[in-house]
Amino acid sequence: MTDLDLLKRFREDTPAPTPEALAAAREQLLTPPPRLATTSPEVVRGSARERTRSFVGRPRVLLAGAMALALAGGFLVADVVTRDGASPAGTVANASTFLADAATASNADPDDPIPPGQFLQISYRTARLTPLGDNPSLRATQYGEKTTWIASDHKPPYVSTSSFMTRVEFASPEARELARTKAPYLFHPMKPSVSLNSCPTVGTETGIVIRGPKPCEPSWENTTYEFLAAQPRDPDLLLAALRKNPPVPAPDFVAWRRIGSVLSTGLVPADLRAALYEAARKIPGIKLLDEVVTVDGRRARVIGRDGDGYRDDLLIAETGGQFLGRRTVVTKDGPPDINGAPEPSLQRGDILYSAIATTRITSTPPPSK
Predict the structure, then answer these.
(1) Which candidate, 145, 202, 128, 144, places its Cα nearest to that of 354?
(2) What's the mean pLDDT in 116-142?
């Protein structure tokens, strides 16, 4: 008899738990372990908390989760860069419950302040699929980076290092050859360059300069500490603010995108992060998907919302309520491009865009050149 046979026998012989037993078990799993002290000079935001969870809370959660998933029929881990292996939307658990738990955890665990003379370092790692032809073998993936340093007084100018494209991977030799004439810029990746942002706003895009009559005007996409402080913490009022003045006639779509964008900045305090999760619960069509592993090895749950051939995902830590990143996933073969025409090179499960965010407090100053 194999281990799988034993698990099947165990499932058949075990009576279904009562709702009371499930609630008690869930409460035990979600109860945070005691904190551990840290003396590290380089403090990642929440690092002491994360180390505590890694050594105390994590084995308990993983063991229980692994058993439950084994009994249910399997465990799936997906990379967030090239293909999405998460379960179909709506088959895992309730998104509203997960977001409520993430909000509670965020409210209970405020972020560490930036000590005088130190910096909040915010880093993004992005990946974009670039179609080059009419089939999946004719495309490239562009990787970008951006890191911004915020001083303890939160005042600009802010130093950033960024590159829209640090490296490129081609899906095939044919794609590489086609790019020589169709997209020659793909052969000129650049190292991150240092820039000085005198605006009070902080955005997430790599290598993009905001232009227009009001380039320094705060928004959900290019925010400031003052902008965030002025936002309501009441979820209904906050959702109304997120839906306000949408650039397209789809306020729920815009609100969902704005939540991902502002959380990606790394500036959102814990109480507003909790309020954003509570506001997200009220947006129709959100669904909880399976666990994924980000490119930097962190485990996240995916909250997704479908659009026209695409799904916009938020990646949130399994415990603790930390926001880890966002991505756009193709949900049908040949989805429409920006002009509405089919994009035959894209297939269901392709990750069109991903941005993984990390923040830490550091005493190392930003580069000067």
Answers:
(1) 128
(2) 94
